[in-house]
């Protein structure tokens, strides 16, 4: 009864007072009220601020909340830090900042609380918390204002009911050139109040633990490419991809955060746990690499993923558990497995795929309850699929959005900063509990991947101080009664994936990049690498050194062993290279643009390096002085195993030509030479194009060019000279024949 009476009084004040005295008059009475007992401070700087300004007015001043007391208790007081930015090229002159509230007001609807946040509600501010003189703010300068109200202040003591209260923060310059306001909330806990407690509302706060900083370790990748035997194992593949240079610092911060807030639920990427020196405490594990299952379902091209080197077995629940066991160093470890939502929604098709892959539970960060205007409820649905029931844990949209840095609307003027959004988060959660104080519910709040540990710490501290909330764990939420199940969920499950064009384009680009990488690796393995034991150069060489009998038999046996070992070596090496490429593809197909770029570049570089390690040594110009000659070409192999390739030679001339092809086997870390025949029909020069072909005739590596210069002179000046001399000699011979003196005897 007392609660209803307070509510009635608040409604009368909200409606009658403004209409009788006017909104401006009500504010004027507040301006004359006594200020807080403490002395707030104001500091001004001329440094240009880079803060995002909120939609407030056309004023030359913008204002944002840097910090605020999210939960006011009997001993906390109320503290604010604000930044004012002068966006004009003219100084503001002196001004005044006023913080006022309505200690008796109770929000009665979602519309009511949203209207206030957007500055569209005329709630009278009957209690002035503080008024501060703000000095001149230079052109394009900023001022930082601190507001401190003691817990003993009358204005706070007048708050006799718990819950969110409206607060308006106003700044006005003395000249009247700048006038701006923020509409925020002060939320009083039940601490120290003589009111009946209602059951606390359950809330589960979940942080996904993953990384978007994946990059390749060039040293380890180089060791694998060079077939360093100590690196040819599954552990080295994990080590070849790390989470950036500041990984240790970030891991410490995450571990400290989890240790400080025991009820913070952590759903971790098991591959990320593998990369940590000491894996953080987790509540559950997600799919490996945070692979985008919803994006996979939306694209509906499983063959493309297979062609990109990422098999379904790489991201199923078994792979997740294997990675977790590797991370914690316990082959028998078990853990709760929950699939995290990717770039699309959990449609029935996506849920069916998740269930097929061994995930009985998924977390939906969006797509469920998005348009619901009813009271909040437990974030759990049990959805039937062709592969079995799937438990869908759904995030409460408003609270999760605020926790992830999203304002409730573009017009919510105080929600452009973390502190402003946190004040709204606390106020909104209190309103939800007051909406149905005796209904058992468990709300899921999903935080953002990669969120600042400082921000999460502040949020969790606020939730822990919120006496109307009871933090629970994921297992409690999973075990709670579903809000809807079975056929009841038919209208709730999203019909379309909702994947954006940008997300689809990123995934398709990643698939294209990794399919090309797989093709290059396959080309190298199948048509360049030489690992045939029966025709191994090592076997032939060893056998030829034996003379006869037992020695020859022993030599053949030894050669066969060498060849067999050589064949096993390339096989293990290629398996490791393929696993490395697959790991890169798996991480890229989480859908993060930066990871796609880095992993795509690394995978392309891996396959390109193998092929480019086989190259033609640049050849000097060849000079020919006869009709035929030869051109030696050297092929180098920097790979750790032999290769067998074909060299193509083609000239730009029809008169100066070479033989077309030459096959060559090049030993590991060695070189071999082939010879091309040259035929010349005239003098001159031409360019020779030398290209490497695999055993199927496809080009690879870098082409080379050289020049053939012919000094041969046939049927040209030299030939004419010879003919001329012969003609002259013939003429002279005939002349002598007719003019010589004959002997008398003739």
From TrEMBL:
Annotated spans, Disordered: 34-63, 531-570
Keywords: Membrane, Signal, Transmembrane, Transmembrane helix
Membrane-crossing segments per the record: 718-735
Keyword Transmembrane helix assigned: yes
Record carries keyword Transmembrane helix: yes
Record InterPro entries: DUF6049
Composition-biased stretches (Low complexity): 531-548
Signal peptide: 1-24
UniProt name for this protein: Uncharacterized protein
Species whose genome carries this gene: Bifidobacterium thermophilum RBL67
């Amino acid at each position: 009864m007392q609660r209803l009476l307070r509510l009635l009084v608040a409604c009368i004040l909200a409606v009658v007072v403004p209409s009788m005295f006017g909104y401006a008059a009500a504010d004027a009475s507040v301006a004359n009220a006594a200020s807080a007992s403490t002395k707030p401070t104001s500091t001004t700087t001329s440094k240009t601020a880079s803060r995002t300004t909120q939609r407030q007015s056309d004023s030359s001043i913008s204002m944002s909340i840097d910090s605020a007391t999210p939960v006011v208790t009997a001993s906390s007081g109320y503290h604010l830090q604000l930044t004012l930015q002068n966006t004009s090229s003219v100084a503001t002159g002196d001004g005044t900042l006023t913080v006022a509230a309505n200690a008796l007001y109770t929000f009665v609807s979602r519309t009511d609380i949203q209207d206030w946040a957007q500055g569209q509600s005329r709630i009278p501010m009957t209690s002035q918390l503080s008024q501060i003189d703000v000095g001149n703010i230079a052109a394009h300068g900023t001022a930082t204002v601190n507001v401190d109200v003691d817990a003993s202040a009358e204005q706070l003591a007048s708050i006799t009911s718990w819950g969110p209260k409206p607060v308006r923060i106003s700044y006005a310059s003395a000249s009247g050139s700048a006038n701006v306001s923020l509409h925020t909330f002060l939320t009083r806990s039940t601490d120290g109040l003589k009111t009946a407690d209602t059951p606390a509302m359950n809330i589960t706060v979940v942080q996904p633990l993953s990384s978007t900083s994946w990059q390749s370790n060039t040293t380890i990748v180089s060791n694998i490419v060079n077939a360093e035997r100590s690196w040819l194992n599954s552990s080295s593949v994990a080590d070849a991809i790390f989470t950036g240079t500041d990984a240790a610092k970030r891991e410490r911060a995450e571990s400290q955060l989890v240790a400080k807030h025991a009820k913070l639920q952590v759903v971790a990427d098991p591959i990320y746990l593998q990369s940590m020196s000491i894996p953080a405490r987790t509540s559950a594990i997600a799919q490996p690499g945070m692979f985008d299952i919803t994006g996979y379902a939306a694209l509906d091209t499983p063959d493309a993923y297979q062609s990109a080197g990422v098999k379904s077995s790489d991201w199923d629940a078994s792979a997740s558990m294997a990675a977790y066991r590797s991370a914690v160093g316990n082959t028998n470890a078990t853990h709760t497995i929950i699939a995290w939502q990717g770039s699309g929604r959990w449609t029935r098709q996506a849920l069916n795929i998740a269930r097929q892959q061994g995930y009985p539970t998924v977390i939906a960060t969006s797509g469920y309850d998005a348009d619901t205007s009813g009271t909040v409820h437990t974030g759990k649905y049990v959805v039937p699929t062709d592969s079995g029931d799937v438990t869908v844990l759904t995030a409460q949209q408003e609270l999760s959005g605020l926790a992830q840095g999203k304002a409730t609307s573009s017009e919510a003027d105080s929600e452009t900063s973390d502190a402003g959004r946190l004040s709204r988060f606390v106020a909104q959660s209190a309103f939800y509990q007051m909406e149905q104080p005796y209904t058992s519910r468990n709300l899921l709040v999903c935080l953002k991947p990669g969120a600042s540990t400082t921000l999460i710490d502040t949020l969790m501290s606020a939730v822990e101080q919120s006496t109307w909330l009871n933090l629970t764990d994921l297992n409690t939420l999973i075990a709670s009664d579903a809000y809807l199940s079975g056929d009841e969920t038919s209208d709730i499950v999203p019909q379309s994936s909702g994947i954006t064009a940008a997300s689809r384009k990123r995934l398709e680009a990643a698939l294209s990049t990794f399919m090309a990488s797989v093709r290059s690796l396959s080309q190298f393995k199948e048509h360049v690498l030489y690992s045939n034991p029966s025709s191994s150069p090592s076997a032939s060489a060893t056998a030829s050194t034996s003379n006869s009998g037992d020695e020859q038999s022993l030599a053949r046996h030894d050669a066969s062993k060498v060849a067999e070992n050589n064949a096993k070596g390339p096989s293990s090496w290629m398996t490791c290279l393929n696993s490395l490429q697959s790991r890169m593809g798996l991480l890229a197909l989480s859908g993060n643009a930066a990871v796609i770029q880095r992993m795509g570049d690394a995978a392309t570089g891996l396959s390109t390096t193998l092929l480019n390690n086989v190259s033609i040594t640049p050849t000097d110009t060849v000079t020919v002085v006869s009709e035929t000659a030869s051109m030696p070409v050297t092929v180098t192999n920097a790979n750790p195993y032999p290769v067998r390739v074909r060299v193509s030679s083609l000239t730009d001339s029809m008169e100066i030509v070479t033989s077309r092809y030459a096959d060559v086997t090049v030993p590991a870390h060695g070189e071999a030479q082939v010879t091309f025949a040259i035929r010349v029909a005239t003098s001159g020069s031409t360019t020779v194009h030398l290209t490497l072909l695999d055993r199927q005739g496809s080009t690879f590596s870098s082409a080379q060019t050289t020049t053939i210069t012919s000094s041969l002179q046939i049927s040209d000046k030299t030939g004419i000279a010879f003919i001329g001399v012969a003609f002259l000699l013939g003429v002279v011979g005939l002349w002598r024949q007719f003019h010589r003196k004959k002997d008398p005897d003739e």
